[in-house]
Structure to design on (122 residues):
């Protein structure tokens, strides 16, 4: 679980800024790339990108790592974590294999994508 959860207040602005970063490929140094979270729900499929954090460095805390990313990157992580928490059937999957296993805990440094098959409301 993230130790510094972003408030979802101001969501439209933070979401737009995050989506712009994804399109431009411009991230804070602590962000190694993006992961995909796919939700299969009653109204179809939704796909959203969220940050893949680099591993925590020697002598660095998770809080320090999270403090080094932008507000919109924190927002995207908080959104993904909340989506995972509300899902009933959540799996981590490798992009190149499509094979998944149940997600045990949300880890922003885990390089695999997330698939939610039974969302509540996301």
């Amino acid at each position: 679980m993230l130790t510094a959860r972003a408030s979802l207040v101001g969501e439209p602005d933070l979401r737009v800024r995050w989506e712009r970063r994804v399109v431009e490929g411009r991230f804070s140094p602590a962000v190694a790339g993006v992961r995909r979270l796919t939700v299969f729900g009653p109204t179809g499929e939704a796909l959203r990108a969220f940050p893949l954090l680099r591993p925590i460095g020697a002598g660095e805390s998770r809080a320090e790592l999270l403090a080094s990313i932008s507000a919109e990157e924190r927002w995207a992580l908080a959104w993904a974590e909340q989506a995972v928490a509300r899902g009933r059937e959540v799996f981590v999957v490798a992009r190149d294999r499509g094979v998944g296993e149940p997600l045990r805990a949300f880890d922003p440094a885990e390089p695999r994508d997330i698939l939610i098959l039974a969302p509540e409301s996301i």
Residues 18 and 72 are 5 Å apart (CA to CA). The chain has one domain: 11-116. The longest strand covers residues 31-41.
